[in-house]
Amino acid sequence: MAPRSSRRAFQALRALAHEQAGYVTAKQAARLGYDYPHLSYHVSTGSLERAGHGLYRLVDVPLTEHDELVRLAFWSRDRSGAPQAVVSHRTALVVHELTELLPGVIELTVPRRFQKPAPAGCMLHHAELPAEDVEAHEGYSVTKPLRTLLDAATSDVPQEVLKQAIAAALERGSVRRSSLLARARGTSGEARLVRALPRTLRSR
Question: How far is the C-alpha of 157 from the C-alpha of 146, rounded, in Å?
Fold first, then answer.
């Protein structure tokens, strides 16, 4: 049985993992005083499972709907352990429920300095995202609806999909027409975005 100090450390590890959709890294565990032998012990007892290189998951925490996005956030960590990837473009449309079409790839935006190659089934966009364009979900970050629509307008998202997404976002109040037009002004996606606005809004 693990000593009492290790049990306290494991309790801290559990608390951190619950904040991260059930996941914790070996580096995070070490900072809590929980080193590799302790992690191996709990893997052997079945309370933890290895989920990737230096990544562990609490077995008793249910998988979230977007577990793959959580894993990709951990995959994108820099040397300090901070995730670099933000869910964006068509994948963000799905997360925000602005489209029912499931894209064939997962799209992520990473900083321009990011050098890791894209995992299979992923597409990376390199850009510096301002903090106000990003929101936190359980275990990962995603572009806010306004930024998501702007990205969709400047990418190869079909016009009909863009039109439906904009209509849904406006109807829910997720974005304001004035903000959408202001942010799109002068971008390569401005014309597409204006064409995608509902007719009643386009003429106001």
Answer: 15
Cross-strand partners of 52? 55
Task: Report the distance separating Cα 173 and Cα 44, nearest Å.
Answer: 49
Q: Does the structure show a pLDDT above 50 at 163?
A: yes
Answer whether residue 202 shows pLDDT above 70: no
Confirm if 69 and 106 have CB atoms less than 8 A apart: yes
**Which residue carries 């190869």 as its tokens?**
156
DSSP label of 203: T
* Spatial contact of 190 and 118, defined as CB atoms under 8 Å apart: no
pLDDT at 57 over 50: yes
Do 31 and 102 contact (CB within 8 A), yes or no? no
Which CATH fold would you assign to the domain 4-58?
Answer: Arc Repressor Mutant, subunit A (1.10.10)
Q: Identity (one letter) of the amino acid at 46?
A: G
